Amino acid sequence: MAEHIAEQWAACPAIVAKFALTTGQESDMEMARGMIARNLPRNNIRMQQRRSETAVVLSQ
């Protein structure tokens, strides 16, 4: 379940980017750019950590 939540959270910047492209407003585009730039590397690390934690729990 934790991995699913992490994947959903990681998708949030893409959803905001799609919204920004739909509206075409520069303020929405800026928000989407900021979310993508800020969250992408961090989300990849979180997903790797969650997988490791899940593997430890399952092996016990």
Total strands: 0
Structural class: mainly alpha
Helix content: over 70%
> What is the CA-CA span between the terminal residues?
17 Å
Order of SSEs, N→C? HH
What does this structure look like?
- The chain is mainly α.
- It has two helices and no strands.
- Helix 1 (2-23) packs antiparallel against helix 2 (26-59).
- The longest helix has 34 residues, at 26-59.
- The radius of gyration is 15 Å and the shape is elongated.
- The chain starts with a helix and ends with a helix.
List keywords for this structure.
60 residues, mainly alpha, elongated
Short note summarizing the structure:
The protein is mostly helical and about 60 residues long. It is built from 2 helices and no strands.
Which secondary structure elements does this structure contain, and how are they paired or packed?
Blueprint: H1 2-23, H2 26-59
Helix pairs in contact: 1-2
